[in-house]
Amino acid sequence: MSRTEITAVEAREILDNRLEPTLRVTVRTEGGAVGRADVPRGRSRGVHEAADLRDGGDRYNGNGVRNAVENVESRIGPELLGHSVTDQSGIDALLCELDGTADKSNLGGNALTGVSLAALKAGAAAHDLPLYRYLGGPAATTIPIPLVDLIEGGELGASELPFQEHQIVPTGADSFEEAIRMCAEVYYELGDQLAESHGKSALSVGDEGGYTPSGMTDPREAFDSILSAVEECGYGDIFELGSDVAATHFYDPDEETYQLAEETYTRGELIDFYAELTDTYPLISIEDPLEEDDFEGFAELTDRLDAQIVGDDLFVTNVSRLQEGIDVGAGDALLCKVNQVGTVTETIETVETARRNGYAIQVSERSGQTADTWLAEVAVGLHANQIKTGTTRSERIEQYNRLLEISDDCGGDYATWLR
Ligand code: PGA
Ligand code: ZN
Questions:
Q1: What does DSSP say about strands 263-266 and 257-260: parallel, antiparallel, or unpaired?
Q2: Which ligand does the CA of 244 lie closest to?
Q3: Tell me: domain 142-414, CATH 3.30.360.10, correct?
Q4: CA-CA distance, 224 to 242, in Å (whole number)?
Q5: Catalytic positions, please?
Q6: 45 close to ligand 1 (CB < 6 Angstrom)
Q7: Whole-angstrom Cα distance, residue 363 to residue 385?
Q8: Is residue 336 within 6 Å of ligand 1 at its C-beta?
Q9: Nearest one of 5, 38, 41, 34 to 121, comparing CA atoms
Q10: Can you tell me the distance from the alpha carbon of 60 to that of 69, in angstroms, rounded to the nearest whole number?
């Protein structure tokens, strides 16, 4: 038996940052290497994502993952015994074959994600390498630019803002360390300003750790507040702005209109609104500006605006959907979430296809996750030039802390804003 052969696959139900169940999977090898990975979960999910298997019933309001745990231990684990953890693509192909469905609804995308990531981590451990180095090779030395969600709305924050994330992007920083320090200082200043203008309740944070000022309904007000804090800190040259609009969540498919607070927009009017925003603000990144099947609309925006157009619910990290986008020129950045597609190998294939076609790569958190720091490792390992991992809350901060360590470890260069 070789030392990298899998000897055990274990799973348990744990809790995420929303106190909701998720999976923790452990893969062990003959040589004693252990890989343990926690599975994240989106709330603002795309309909084309891999299935997230939940138990239903009363327990945890139906959100239990005992069936997914059972699938890992009884249906997946025995099939993996004896396989080498170093054969990631073989393991992932077997996972897809065992599941046998296009959307991973048989065994559960969450079950597959946990096993795939735990095997990857066990592979790194078996080689005695940090995960980012195992995944990315010697050239994995770039620390991605963070897009930091300072004000939250949509499905993820208790505010009335229609856009989900209002981000600062430290494109002008010289290093990741400096970037994070300046983001933190802007965060403190914005907090002071919002407490004054919107009351102390504005300091409550959403799922990704950004502020949630009540009474703020217009994205322009959020951008103005952020720019005011940036200016007060004297960082006008450092920061630009980004947003995850998550437009599907305020789209009315019957009327084919978008509802932003009190105002109803047609698709054309919303596209014009983005053009106005990019004319007015230093807005360089817009994620999911239109509903998740509007490839033509994404293409129109990509062509018309200088800002990068990021596909999240549009592509769902799925290579076929990305290819559909490439064919019509929809988007120029890929949002990359491993659990949207379900395995590491499929994620790598999508990222490589995106890169070959000139797309920027933004590795992303989910709104539900744990303090497991594979996200930071995977971002560097996939040579991503951007990362989106929220603001405060430990499950976000731990990613930044790990990136700071990786930056030290590999003498990391800070990424550039490739387009
Ligand atoms: P989710 O949201 O993790 O709840 O899907 C994050 C995003 O839309 O980018
Ligand atoms: Zn999104």
A1: antiparallel
A2: 2
A3: no
A4: 13
A5: 208, 337
A6: yes
A7: 8
A8: no
A9: 34
A10: 15
Task: Encode pLDDT of 177-221 as tens digits.
Answer: 999 999 999 999 999 999 999 999 999 999 999 999 999 999 999
Nearest ligand to the C-alpha atom of residue 45? 1
Q: Is 366 in the pocket of ligand 1 (CB under 6 A)?
A: yes
Domain 6-128: which topology?
Enolase-like; domain 1 (3.30.390)
State the closest ligand 1 atom to the C-alpha of 41, by its place in the atom list counted from 1.
3
Q: How far is the CA of 388 from the centre of ligand 2 (A)?
A: 10
The DSSP annotation for 239-256 comes to -EEEEE--GGGGEETTTT
Strand locations in 163-307 (E): 165-169, 240-244, 251-252, 257-260, 263-266, 283-287
Of 166, 169, 138, whose CA–CA distance to 419 is shortest?
A: 169
d(CA 14, CA 412) in angstroms, rounded, equals 33
Strand, helix or coil for residue 402: helix
Every domain of the chain with CATH number 3.30.390.10 lies at: 6-128
Ligand 1 contact, 312 CB (< 6 A): yes
Q: What is the pLDDT of residues 290-318, one digit of tens each?
A: 999 999 999 999 999 999 999 999 999 99
Q: Check if the beta carbon of residue 201 is closer than 8 Å to that of residue 194.
A: no
The alpha carbon of 32 and the centre of ligand 1 are apart by a number of angstroms equal to 36
Per residue of the chain (419 residues), what is the pLDDT tens digit?
A: 689 999 999 999 999 999 999 999 999 999 999 999 999 999 999 999 999 999 999 999 999 999 999 999 999 999 999 999 999 999 999 999 999 999 999 999 999 999 999 999 999 999 999 999 999 999 999 999 999 999 999 998 888 999 999 999 999 999 999 999 999 999 999 999 999 999 999 999 999 999 999 999 999 999 999 999 999 999 999 999 999 999 999 999 999 999 998 999 999 999 999 999 999 999 999 999 999 999 999 999 999 999 999 999 999 999 999 999 999 999 999 999 999 999 999 999 999 999 999 999 999 999 999 999 999 999 999 999 999 999 999 999 999 999 999 999 998 899 998 64
Q: Where in the chain is the domain with CATH 3.20.20.120?
A: 142-414
Task: Please tell me whether residue 391 adopts helix, strand or coil conformation.
Answer: coil
Other CB atoms within 10 Å distance of the CB of residue 349: 18
CA pair distance 316, 47, nearest whole angstrom: 9
